[in-house]
Every structure is written in C-alpha cells, then in structure tokens.
Batch of 2 targets.
Target 1
Amino acid sequence: MNWQGVFPAVTTKFGADDQLDFELFDKNLQFQLEAGVDGIILGGTLGEASVLSLEEKGALVKFTVEKVAGRVPVVLNIAEGATRDAIQLAKLAEEWGAAGLMMLPPMRYKADDFETVEYFKAVANSTTLPIMIYNNPVDYKIEVTLDMFAALAECENIQAVKESTRDLTNVTRMRNRFGDRFKIMCGVDTIAMEQLVMGADGWVAGLVCAFPEETVAIYKLVKAGRYEEALSIYRWFMPLLELDIHPKLVQYIKLAESRVDLGSEAVRPPRLVLSGAERERILALIDGAIAIRPTLPDYKAIVL
C-alpha cells in the first residue's frame, strides 16, 4: 500500500427507495479516477457508515474493487464498538478484496489510552491488510497520542495516520518522533494545504467528492513546489472546504455533488435532506463558487 496522494472519502449513493444506487456511485467513482485520485475510501463518516448494514458494506467494497480494476487501492473504514466486530469486519474486508483499512478508535465507549492501543493491536494482528489510524479526537473524542503511536509501531501493518486533530504541529511532531515510520494523510479539508506544505504525504479529502480535479491539482502543485498556483486554487476552494467541518457535512457535500451532476442529495435517516433557509444558504455558497470556478493548470502532466 502506498499511502500517498489524494484518497477521496466517498459518499454512499442512495436511490429514492433508500437502496444503494450503484449507477450513480459508479458515475462519481469514474470521475474521481479520471481526475487522478490515488485511492478510494469507503464507509467513512461521509460514507454514512453508521447506517450501512454489513451486507451493504460488502456490496460496496466488491462493486468498487471490480470497477476500479486495480487502478488504485480500495480502503474500507472500520468504526465498530466491539473488538470482535472490528476483527470480523477486517477479515471480511480482505475477503471482499479491499487493499487496506482505515480504523477509528472504539465507537460509543470512550476507551482509555491502553484500551485503545489494545483495540488497534488486536485488529492489526488479525489481518495482513495495511492499516491507517483515523485520529480525530474532535469528532470521536479519543486522541491517539504520540506515545500511543509508539506502542503501535510494533504492528508492521499499522502504516499511516489520517491526521484530523486539527493541530498543524502534529505533522511535525510525528515526523520528529517517528521519521517516515508512519505515513501522514491530511484529514481535515480546511488545513490540507498547510499540512501538505509541512510534509504530509497525502490527503483524505471530503469536497473531492464534488470537486476532484481541484483537489488533485492542489495536491500535485504543492508537492511540485508550485505553491502560488496551489494557493490560488485553495483560496477559491476554502468556502467549500469549510463544509467539511460541520456536523451536516454529509448533507452539505451531497448537495455539492448534486450541483455538479456527480451525485444526489439523498441521505439515509436519521439524516434528512436539507430544506428551507439552511438549504438556500448552502446552495448559494456552492453555486457562487461554481460560478467563479478557476481554470486549472495541466496538473496531470506533473510527475512527482
């Protein structure tokens, strides 16, 4: 697994009957691949993992693996409450054809540092799949500290971190302590360019679901040292990127997908489609950004 580049945390598409909409999902997936993304992450926060059945997760992984056809790795998120359930899902992910796992700490129970480390180790030791730890204490209330990463370093297949603490200095702290032992993936859209400049290896992105070309362009331009060009796009992008740090990020990003014909607004309850003044406000923001969408340089020609 090469934890590097842009990995979209893709949304899960639903039809009017609340069933998985594979046709619409594939349309978005192919657009992501054409834009030049480097991996696909299924069943994350944006993927509405908490309301997907095990059967639906399996169907999504198998469908994506088939459609991607080896062009990029397919990663499944694990967000479980029980260690045995996480181990079972890791085993199934391998059987379904996933190339890697993204893992949150235990759900619902606020485990202490030792319990969290043991949880991650138990899953890591149960699978050969490479693992990226999702470190998001803001939303999930458990921080994976540097000392905890030191304890996890013995598990060779724990290879990366989705850095979502919103503390920019964590990129430097990780590098100072561990060198290149753990790959670092930006996990918060609104500080992604800053993290990349500080040495992060990639970007697990959210607004990429609607704007994959702009996202990949920023990544490649930064890594090529073309900071002014990247910054121009990033400044245009920022009002949209801020949709990623709201509790309704799923609804907001799905609305953006619908406006660029890469998805629909359909969500699974208890989430509800936006309505009224809130929908109009977010719609105005999205449409305003689309109206002044920047012309991109030939980022695909950049060889890193």
Target 2
Amino acid sequence: MRVLAAMSGGVDSAVAAARAAEAGHDVTGIHLALSRNPKSYRTGARGCCTIEDSNDARRAADVIGIPFYVWDMSDEFHEAVVEDFMDEYAAGRTPNPCLRCNEKIKFAAVLDRAMALGFDAVVTGHYAQLETGPDGLIEMHRAVDMAKDQSYVLGVLTQEQLAHSLFPLGDSVKGDVREEAERRGLMVANKPDSHDICFIADGDNAGWLKEKLGDRAPNQGGDIVDQGTGEVLGQHEGTTAYTIGQRKGLRLGRPAPDGKPRFVLDIEPVSGTVTVGPREALRIDRISGVRARWCGTVPERLDGTVQLRAHGAEHRARITTSSSDGTVRDLVQIELLDPAEGIAPGQAAVIYDGSRVVGSATISATARSEALV
C-alpha cells in the first residue's frame, strides 16, 4: 500500500514508520506543523509541536530512507483544537484536546488530504490494535501493553477512518520499541515522551487560559461555596482555574469541620460559583453523553465497560443509546456498576466491549443515584 506516516518527532511514530516501510509499504513521512509560532509552544524535546521535533522527524525519515514533508496545519489546529479547548473551559467544561486533535486533525484533515493525494492509509505511532471482525468491519482493540494503551484517545474514530489507518505498535511494549529504535539507528530512541497539553508551553493551564481568554472568560471571579451549608468560604479569580474533583489550589485558609480536605464538586461559569465539599460527594453512577461517535456497528444497548480518563480505570457499565433527531444514535446514557469520582462535563466516555472499542461520547451531565446519597 501507499501510506502516509505521521511523524511527530518522537520515538513511537519513527518506529511505526520504519515498520511500515519494512513491511513493504510505499511510505512517505510527514510532520504536522501545528503551531502558528513554534517558539510559543512547548520546547525541550516533548515530541509534538516544536521546531526541534520537526528536525527530529526529518532525521528519522532520512535514516529509514523515506521521503519527508512538513504540512502546515496550524490554522486547522488552532480552530479545531485550541479554540475548542478555550470555548469548553469558558463554558465550565473540561475538554480533552488530544481526542479533539485525533478527531479533527490527525484522522480527518490529514486522512482526507492523504486520500486526495492517492495514499491508501495513514500510519501513526499510537498503541492500539486493528483487526477484521467476523462481520467484515475493522475493529479497534486495546494495545498489548496496557500501560501504553492509547485506544481511549482514538475512541472518536469512525469505521471509515479505521479502514484507512495502521497502528504498527499495537502488539509491542514501550521498552522494546526504544530498543528497536536504537538498533535502527534512530536518534530519538531515548527522547522523552510528550506529556500534558502540547500547546501550553509551561503546563500552567489556568494561567494560559486566563491570559488567552481575556474578555471571553465567563467571569473574573466569584464565590467558593460549601455544598452542605451554603456558606461562602472564599473567593476566586475565575472558574477556568478549576476542574471537578480538584483538591489542591483552593486556598481556603481553613479546613472542613471534620478536618478532611474539600474537593471541587461543581462549577457554574455564569455566576462564577465554585461549589466544594467532601470527597464522597464526587461519587457518581449516572452519565449522560452527547455527540456520540461509533467505531463500527452502533449498539442500542450494551453491557460493557467505559473509560472516563486517558489513563483511568475501566468501569463496568450498562450503556443505552438514542437519537436526538431520529437519524443517528448520538445520545448515550451510562449506568456505572462501578461508581466513579471527579467526572466532569466535557470529558470523554469511551465505551468498550471487552478489549474492543465500541465508540465514545462527550459527557454532558453526571448524577448520583439514591444508592450513593
């Protein structure tokens, strides 16, 4: 096949490209320039958006012996990922920009352009496995190395996108990949993994949001209120500094009457009210989801599991789907048999049937049944 290898400048994408070439595919490497100003994004070999990363990807392509190009997708990235991230926080939600990037950039804009140029598939260094199911559809499964499994952030992919994707690292473990990179003479063999959000240079999400949102911020401050008593415990300078489940950084100056720490339970972006309370009040077992995306056949009902964070645990769950307009089943109701804590609107609920990824939905609301009250 004629395949396009998305090369971030990190070790995983380099080895994935090398394996694709070794398998006999006609491989062309590309690096996505996602920053309008690369110096404003994270530096220090973080494997994502910097000039150093572009150079690392180019050197890896030279070693593999494949053509290499840089695609400027900074405008698409800013609109679909960065602006979305700011809009979601301004609305009091907690988005996952990595899922949005996979959905809108790496497996939409890139794949569309690749197909238009005559490529058959896009290969990436994600840790997930693809196989053909008994119904002839392409199934995505968790990676062999559960510590590196990235199926959660790929849960937004559709059947059409999976049919034109290759994930050569799905059956590997990270240590073996680094050793293979060294054997192949790839200089990125010992390059650190990327972490956090690539477009926030110092990892200070709250500070970045405060600076970038400016007048778009929903409020410039408000009350921190105790859930149980309604007492105003303190003030804050903006709700974008808080997420559901947060414990540190509340700066209340006094403990709860029982001496236990308080956690953020709710964020109201219009009034600016941040509600805090005990950890047990974070427990939920009901989730509503919107904008569902399905990897294959859409289930009406499913007894499976859901994952609610990129590196979170699986929760046994009963999933029911419905339609908002009578055409596609884009709404999801999830009953957690294993309650979860600190789940916020805007996060993604990725649905599994065993190791197979069924699909995903954006969490719109959470609730506690009487059994948890």
